[in-house]
Amino acid sequence: MQHLDVRIHDNVATVLIDRPEKHGALSPGLLFDLNEALGDVHQEKRARAVVLSSRGDHFCSGVDLQVFQQIADLPESERMQQWFEYWRAVSETCEKMLRFPKPIIAAVDGAAIGAGFALMLASDLCVASKRATFAADAARRGLVGGVTTALLSFRIGAAAAARLTLAGENIDAEEAQRLNLLCQSPVASDQVWVAASQWAARCSEGPAEAVQASKRLPNESVGEALLTQISAAAADSASACTTESAAEGVSAFLEKRKPSWP
């Protein structure tokens, strides 16, 4: 796979986002590879749990704004469909992670931003380094991160989700732990994968059927409305991309300047 590295050690599969030059930004190719990798690991009998991590200084910087700029340059008749296809790929990836029968543990070192934050939230557990940061900052770019908002509301409640999504607040690992987003205290960067693998091994100690049912209960039964919200979020996020504010926000980011909102 061009954008992923998949390895299996004992009964734990590691899915490594391999796009360090773009800080793990979610290109269409990367999203495709991630879905393919999850399908392969699903079929791999040796793998009882999955660690999702990334190569480079950051976990995932979110949507690939250069791809957004390329879509914005297309004829108007083609843009909406392309934006919808992109956001549908994000929502389907997160839904696939929630429905995935094996536990997924996110190992976050560096930044998890926007849709990258959503990947972490779609995982069952998260281990983070002391230098990890988390942000749902789509609104500050003139965009709508519907998938991230839905997952945040599910994980920590609407009030805390509103604080993060409306203000675009960047929180550190200690604050993430206080909000119950992490399963343990932050660790050193070189211990993130080790700690995540230990949790994966722990999750693998029970019989597969019981573990699968225990994962399905909160994600599908308790969180039944979540799956509907994630599916609907693709259309909401795609519509937001058609606005002048979105065009200005993306351009300002790529040009490394402060946006001038219409």
UniProtKB/TrEMBL annotation:
**Which Pfam families does the protein's record reference?**
ECH_1
Q: Which UniProt keywords apply?
A: Isomerase
- For this entry, the protein name equals Enoyl-CoA hydratase/isomerase
Matching CDD domains, A to Z? crotonase-like (cd06558)
Per the similarity annotation, which family is this? Belongs to the enoyl-CoA hydratase/isomerase family.
Gene3D superfamilies reported for this sequence: 2-enoyl-CoA Hydratase, Chain A, domain 1 (3.90.226.10), Lyase 2-enoyl-coa Hydratase, Chain A, domain 2 (1.10.12.10)
Q: Which GO terms describe its molecular function?
A: isomerase activity
What InterPro entries does UniProt report for this protein, alphabetically?
ClpP/crotonase-like_dom_sf, Enoyl-CoA_hyd/isom_CS, Enoyl-CoA_hydra/iso, Enoyl-CoA_hydra_C
